[in-house]
Amino acid sequence: MFGLGTLARVVGEVRRDVAAARDRDPAARGVGPGEILAAWPGVHALLSHRVAHALHEVGVPMVPRSIAYFSRALTGIEIHPAARIGDGFFVDHGMGVVIGETAEIGRNVTLYQGVTLGGTGFATGKRHPTVEDNVTIGSGAKLLGPITVGHGAKIGANSVVIHDVPPNSTVVGNPGHPVRVEGRRPEGPDADWVHLPDPIADAITGLASRIGALERALAEIAEPGHDRDESPAEVRPIRRAEGPSPAGG
Question: What residues does 170 pair with on adjacent strands?
Fold first, then answer.
């Protein structure tokens, strides 16, 4: 039953969650654990979930769902009492985050506002994502179904992910697909959403380049005296993100 051992475990988990908020949120730099515990909604939601999950595990009726309901009303973060969440979990801002019943989250995972770990269809059993250790999921990302997000992966903002994500990869787009960034990515949270690769922009750039080459080829073989523009159309290159990385700020 729910005894001192379970209570000690919950307290230890909350202590590590507070430490994760202090380490990963630039706004928490120089802020004491007490203030974080009092003023960070992501920490409030986790504290409520730790208690609700412990009660759910020992079979207490109604109370776990009631705790989850009031936590959602206060923080804007909805976590089902049955969801399994590892140590060092951090939800930054958090409004609109939804974590479903059979979701499983590993250690040192970071979520931003608007993230959904949701199910698909009405099937029973495992129907929500499994997120392994050291994963970062950007604002508005939707992870749907019993997929697995591999260790150290990074999900770009507003991506829609419906397939498994390989470890140490970056996923962008709708539907989400993995792209590599300088090979193996370093572990740990990374908030640099500006400099993510954009395969759609790369494809458009390739098409624009090809159109320019075709126009130049047509200009060379056109008949003399033909009423035409002597110069091929200009291909405007897609502007790449420049400037310092905003990660961590």
Answer: 154, 179
